[in-house]
Design brief:
Strand order of the largest sheet: 2-1-3-4-5-6
Number of strands: 12
Radius of gyration: 22 Å
CATH class of the largest domain: Alpha Beta
Strand content: 5-15%
CATH architecture of the largest domain: 3-Layer(aba) Sandwich
Largest sheet: 6 strands, parallel
CATH topology of the largest domain: Rossmann fold
Number of helices: 17
Distance between the termini: 22 Å
Number of domains: 2
Structural class: alpha/beta
Order of helices and strands: EHHEHHEHEHHEHEEHHEEHEHHEHEHHH
């Protein structure tokens, strides 16, 4: 059995790093061979979310298309094609349709409401050519669909009866709590990207009020730059795979604010899972998947209004014992439900079942 994995990004892209690449060692252990083909190269990813670079992005886009075409020409050596999110970032379901015509089994995996219009200001030109409506077409043509949460599951069921839910897991061996020497200050942290940075601005007034009440707190963001005119205690830096763990270990409290809308209900709550795996107590908006991950006041806190955000963060700032208890409970939740160890067998079984069904069907037709 050999699987071709089509992902949008290289390892630097968090979505396929956690939903595909984390499982690859488990596949090797089960004797499953595979090739991993990202559409965007590492060089392209460095420019992808920066303003400008139109010619370079066009060049890397064409390289991605050529890579997909080469895979199509060699598709006979693969038994299954696993597509994370989409085969190509623009246009319709061309590559997926070709695979369907070639009768190649497709497993489709998605972890966002990519069937809704969305985009980034840095690539507004490309956004004109996106086709979010193709998601339903891809789902119809798939042998099996993996959704990241129940909201996406319900959407996929409209077009395909073979759907499973696997949350975005985390490697609890790599992401683990580490003792932190108390330096007298408390760091409130946020880890994300420019696509979700806008959500963090919901807490600007809360950060101002907290900083007045607790002048010893610090605010740190990873993956997006936050600037609040009244505050000088904010540190922002680019995300780095090499420095990620050290950056997270500087957090005493994690935050995950989100508005409640159709797009955010499709999010898979990974920020919360990330914080919790590190034993970092977190305060999150009670939106979408977050409500399935966190039990309020047991392994994390929910906050909906500025008053609630101030109240819950103040509790954690002032009570070291509470931070420790919530952090321990959070880690236990991740180990039981959201770890790679727990979810890898589910992922692998789906691949094996699709392979077996395709083989049995072919065998019956031959007979």
């Amino acid at each position: 059995m050999k699987v071709l994995f089509w992902t949008p990004y290289p390892t630097q892209g968090p979505s396929n790093r956690y939903r595909v690449e984390q499982y690859l060692p488990s596949l090797r252990d089960r004797g499953i061979d595979f090739d991993l083909r990202p559409f965007w190269s590492s060089a392209a990813y460095k420019l992808l979310y920066e303003q400008g670079h139109f010619l370079e992005k066009t060049y890397y886009f064409l390289l991605g298309v050529l890579s997909r075409l080469r895979d199509i020409l060699a598709i006979s050596k693969y038994h299954i094609v696993f597509i994370h999110r989409e085969a190509c970032p623009v246009g319709g379901a061309f590559f997926e349709t070709v695979l369907s015509l070639l009768r190649k089994p497709i497993i489709f995996d998605f972890d966002d409401a990519i069937f809704l219009p969305s985009g980034t200001l840095t690539n507004s030109f490309i956004e004109r050519f996106k086709r979010p409506d193709k998601t339903s077409t891809i789902i119809r043509k798939s042998s099996h669909v993996i959704s990241g949460n129940s909201y996406l599951y319900e959407y996929a069921l409209r077009y395909n009866n073979s759907v499973s839910v696997i949350p975005t897991p985390i490697d609890t061996a790599r992401y683990a709590p580490m003792p932190k020497e108390s330096q007298g200050d408390i760091t409130i942290g946020w880890a994300g990207s420019i696509t979700t940075l806008e959500f963090l601005k919901m807490l600007e007034n809360v950060f101002i009020k907290l900083s007045r009440h607790f002048p010893f707190i610090k605010i740190k963001t990873i993956g997006g730059y936050l600037s609040v005119k009244e505050l000088t205690n904010i540190t922002s830096k680019k995300w780095s795979l090499e420095e990620e763990l050290d950056d997270l270990r500087a957090f005493d409290i994690g935050v995950m604010p989100m508005p409640d809308n159709e797009w955010t209900r499709g999010k898979c709550g990974f920020k919360a899972i990330l914080y919790m795996s590190m034993g970092i107590p977190c305060v999150c908006s009670p939106v979408g998947m977050n409500k399935d991950i966190i039990t309020d006041a047991k392994d994390g806190f929910f906050a909906s209004s500025e008053e609630e955000w101030f109240e819950k963060l103040s509790l954690l700032i002032t009570d070291a014992g509470l931070r420790k208890r919530i952090g321990i409970a959070a880690r236990e939740t991740v180990e039981k439900t959201f770890s790679v160890k727990v979810n890898a067998p589910k992922f692998t079984d789906i691949l094996l079942n699709v392979y077996a069904n395709a083989y049995d069907k072919g065998k019956r037709c031959a007979e």
